[in-house]
Amino acid sequence: MRVLNEQVDLSFLSANSLQVAEQLIGWRLYKREGSELIGGTIVETEAYDQSDAASHSYRGVTPRTKVMFGPAGYIYVYFTYGMHYCMNIVTDHAGVGSAVLIRALEPDSGVDIIQARRGNRHDNLTNGPAKLCLALGVGREDNGKKLNNSEFLLLPPTRAKRMVLATPRIGITKDTHRLWRFVASD
DNA sequence: AGGGAGATTTTCT
DNA sequence: GAAAATCTCCCTA
After folding, report:
1. Cα A26 from Cα A22, distance rounded (Å)
2. Cα(A64)–Cα(A79) distance, rounded to whole angstroms?
3. CB distance A25 to A46 below 8 Å
4. Taking CA atoms, which of A40, A50, A52, A113 is between 20 and 30 Å from A15?
5. Which nucleotide is nearest to A59 (CA to C1')?
6. Tens digits of per-residue pLDDT, A140-170?
């Protein structure tokens, strides 16, 4: 796949995380490894921000959350449950601690590599945030990297806007009433 | 097919 | 010291 990064307009990422989380459905996310592109279409996201007791940024800037408080368009990777990585796209302006968790995507490139990393399964390869990171090879070292710089690519949807559903978020115990999770309806 | 527990370590209180 | 933006396996139906 050949890509011209510089013509992709990512200015919408500077909006608040709730808006961005909905808009990101249908965009395509890839990681470049040598000559291989690994990734696909984003189908599930969740918004987090400072007003949100379930968010890492709720208690302010810490060594871990400083990327969330930076400018939009960067990757925030965190480690959790003693064994998993999850990746976010930082949103809003510098000084605002907000990001969108990428929970699931439909792979369309580098699928053979993904399968190898996921124990040669054929199904449910990237339908959860930790699986997705394993599939794309995302880890600590990717925290703070910039989108569409060299390694990570975020590309516009290829087809018409999908129907998007808003639902409660997953795996949190605070602020569970917020409909801040978005999924593609097909 | 659905629920529960275990794995395992960073992070902040 | 406890909880954590999770996943997989193993159990019961």
Report:
1. 9
2. 10
3. no
4. A40
5. B12
6. 999 999 999 999 999 999 977 779 999 999 9
